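Morning!

This is the sequence you dropped in the shared folder:
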Amino acid sequence: MMNFYERVYDYLKTVPRGKVVTYGQIACAIGRPRAARQVGNALHCNPEPVTIPCHRVVNREGRLAPAFAFGGVEVQARLLEDEGVIVTDGYVDLQKYIWRE
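The structure's back. Tokens below.
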């Protein structure tokens, strides 16, 4: 049986380039709807940042992570922009870029 972090990482690997998901969306998808903060903790400990695209996770308002563990908000913005996601003042337009399974 997979632990919580492994379920977060497996789900995140399914998010396509050019799309984003929220912490709460991941929590719901893995069966732990009240665990959005724990999702953030899992992402902060991401063992494979190249393979597990934690840069595709934003908050429920589309805001980038101010404490993005792998270089800060500027790096997260650049990684998203490299995938075609437009970042404006630290926010992503969820209407346009949210991923729904």
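Headline: The two ends are 23 Å apart (CA to CA).

More detail when I'm at my desk.
O.
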